[in-house]
Amino acid sequence: MASTSSDEQEDSSSSLTNKLLKTRDALEKLSLANVQVTDGEDELAAFRQQWQRELEATPSPHREPPRQQTKSEPEEPISDEEKAKQLFLRGVELERSGKLYEAIQHYKRSMQIVPDVETRLYESTDHRADTPIEELKVEEVREAEDVDSDDEMIEGEDLVTRLHRILARKGTLCQPEFTTRGGHISWLPYEVVQLVLRWAVSADLDAVTLERISATCRGLYLAAREPDIWRLLCVKTWGIECGVPRGHGFTSWRQMYIDRPRIHLHGCYISKTTYLRHGENSYQDQSYRPWYLVDYYRYLRFFPDGVVLMWTTAEEPASCVGQLKHRAAKPSLGIMPGHYRLVGDKVVIVIKKVSSEKKSAHATNTRFRSRRKEIHEHQEQIFHLELELHNVRSRRNWQLSWRHYAVSSRRDQWTQFELSPNKFPPFAFSRVRAYTAEAHAPLAAHT
Known about the structure:
Blueprint: H1 2-57, H2 80-96, H3 100-113, H4 117-125, H5 133-148, H6 159-170, H7 190-201, H8 207-214, H9 218-224, H10 227-238, H11 253-259, E1 267-278, E2 291-302, E3 307-313, E4 336-343, E5 346-360, E6 374-392, E7 395-410, E8 413-416, E9 427-431
Antiparallel strand pairs: 1-2, 1-9, 2-3, 3-4, 4-5, 5-6, 6-7, 7-8, 7-9
Helix pairs in contact: 2-3, 2-4, 8-9, 10-11
């Protein structure tokens, strides 16, 4: 029994020893593996650091070195004004790209934050007043170099010939200054551009609009100098007495249209007359006698087809010029239509006014008094005016002065008026933009 128990103790002690040995071997293997892993991680970290240093030392044109952010530098919060400016600029970009609804939403959000964000943005980006004089001079020199770089000047060459040579070398009439998503006038053929210009002039002979179009660019400057357009303007203005430029001492149709005496059609001629009128004595105080200062106006509106409208009224020009826009006269207002003809620097006007009066026929027998008929008698008045064109400083054909004025109420009975400067002051031209705001027909040889 004693031997058996001793054997069991030896077996248990030997098994415990074997377990301890196995545990020690496993721990040694685990520690060796951890050492190998840490050595591998250290080598990988060292490789990464070396690679990063090489990238930072090598300059790259496509990438800026990353800025190291430190914990000591916190991000600055964006103010409400900057946020509103960013939203407004984003709305501008969306509007340019055609997304109008999104642009309006950004505009509204920016104005809710700062109501005057557009003014502040303009003031913050407008540095024209702060630009040094030296920089302005450099920019002017660059612009001059750009203009001169198109082509060299040739001695004795006029502007139109030079522009023709430049555009012939470029091969295009004009070019868009900014990129556009839609069509541009430079895409149109030259014939279509000429048709557009004839519509701009229209049948009302609006040469002022043509001159404004010519100030746009070099291509439209040349297109607006086309001789056919100015020839039609001259023919429509003087008719059979037009002639040719050389016959009147001019070098071109345009020069003849500008320098030769003619009537302005894009407005009306206005004359203001002022006089004193005696009033009646007061029944209470016979020594008191009032005086009245009376003002009234004469209006003359000329049309290309020889029609003229004349109106004498006490109304101010602001409320009257609109009534003279169309050829159809309004007799109820006192507007009288007529015809005119231009002979040299003289304008001859003939106006016929027909007024009807109602008169009742007197019956001899009172029995038929209820059957009396009203007789309409037509009274005809003919006004004959002769005016002369004058220049006022640099404004050509700006004034019409009286030369002759007569009225006929009966056949072959004329009444001539004494043309004193006080009673018949000259007409002064006033431009009315509403007269040429619309075009109903283009400029053509037969309209």
